[in-house]
């Protein structure tokens, strides 16, 4: 065989390099070992892990995690980590809301590969012997300057006897102390919390009660800032000469009006078989005095609203 001329050796070497590079590009990582169906006790930590057949290529670094189709994000209670050939997710303190179908999604050159399976949450030890589990899915559905409206779902386990009702608790985050909001147990899975301070961050949670006593509290809501949702509608900024502005409030425009007009846009914004949540637009003019509202019912369905 004739030797390859020195001038051509560089071209041959470059060709081999690009063939090798192209082969590497085709060998993207695939799922290797993935988490099986998992059982974890409420209140414990939950860790799931996937390993891959090789190191993740640059375009594969964003391995996504989902629970019941909703993407999970890094937070104070969720830790997502990536390694060369491994991806993990850890939930520091698992609760019943963390139960569901978990999915890890890996990008490949052909699209996506997914691994999914169910994670089961076992009830943690009862707060009192034969007591109920904690309520689920506590949500704030309405926020105002001095109240919020809470809804939740019953606990997954009643304990030795049926749940008789619930205690609602609030926490002013500037003080860090949980305070019970109701003296008598609330029998329905909703509760309007009154007497809050405007401009304060609160969290809320709920305890179920049966004959044995009160159970563990639910997962706390996200922090909620109390504020008047219509405050921005009561001011008007007027531009004057040389870039100056004047802020005019509705109180100034209404002059000496004292008695408010009727509320408008009255509607039911949430309905169930046991309650209805009503909303309306405050009267205009409203007068300068603080407003309170009375709700009146006529017959089984019709309501009227008086300021």
TrEMBL record:
Entry keyword tRNA processing: no
Q: Write out the entry's keywords from A to Z.
A: Immunoglobulin domain, Repeat
Where the record annotates domain Fibronectin type-III, the positions are 134-229
Domain (Ig-like) ranges: 29-102
Domain of life (superkingdom): Eukaryota
Pfam families in the record, alphabetically?
fn3, I-set
| Listed InterPro entries | FN3_dom, FN3_sf, Ig-like_dom, Ig-like_dom_sf, Ig-like_fold, Ig_I-set, Striated_Muscle_Regulatory
What the entry lists under SUPFAM superfamilies is as follows: Fibronectin type III, Immunoglobulin
- The entry's protein name is Myomesin 1
């Amino acid at each position: 065989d004739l030797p390859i001329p020195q001038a051509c050796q560089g071209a041959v070497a470059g060709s081999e390099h690009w063939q090798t590079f192209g082969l590497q590009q085709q060998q993207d990582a695939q799922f290797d070992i993935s988490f099986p169906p998992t059982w974890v006790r409420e209140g414990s930590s939950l860790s799931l892990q996937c390993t891959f057949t090789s190191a993740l290529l640059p375009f594969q670094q964003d391995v996504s995690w989902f629970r019941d189709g909703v993407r999970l994000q890094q937070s104070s209670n969720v830790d997502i980590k990536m390694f060369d050939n491994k991806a993990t997710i850890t939930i520091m303190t698992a609760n019943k809301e963390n139960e569901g179908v978990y999915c890890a999604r890996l990008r490949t050159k052909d699209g996506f590969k997914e691994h999914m399976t169910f994670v089961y949450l076992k009830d943690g030890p009862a707060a009192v012997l034969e007591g109920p589990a904690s309520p689920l899915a506590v949500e704030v559905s309405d926020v105002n300057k001095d109240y919020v409206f809470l809804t939740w779902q019953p606990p997954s386990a009643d304990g030795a006897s049926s749940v008789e009702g619930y205690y609602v608790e609030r926490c002013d985050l500037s003080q860090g102390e949980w305070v019970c909001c109701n003296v008598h147990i609330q029998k329905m899975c909703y509760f309007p919390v009154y007497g809050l301070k405007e401009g304060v961050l609160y969290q809320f949670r709920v305890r179920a009660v049966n004959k044995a006593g009160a159970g563990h509290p639910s997962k706390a809501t996200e922090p909620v800032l109390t504020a008047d949702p219509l405050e921005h509608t009561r001011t008007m900024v007027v531009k004057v000469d040389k870039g100056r502005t004047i802020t005019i409030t509705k109180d100034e425009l209404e002059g000496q009006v004292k008695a408010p007009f009727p509320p408008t846009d009255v509607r039911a914004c949430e309905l169930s078989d046991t309650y209805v949540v009503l909303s309306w637009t405050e009267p205009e003019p409203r007068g300068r005095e603080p407003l309170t509202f009375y709700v009146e019912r006529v017959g089984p369905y019709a309501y009227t609203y008086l300021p």
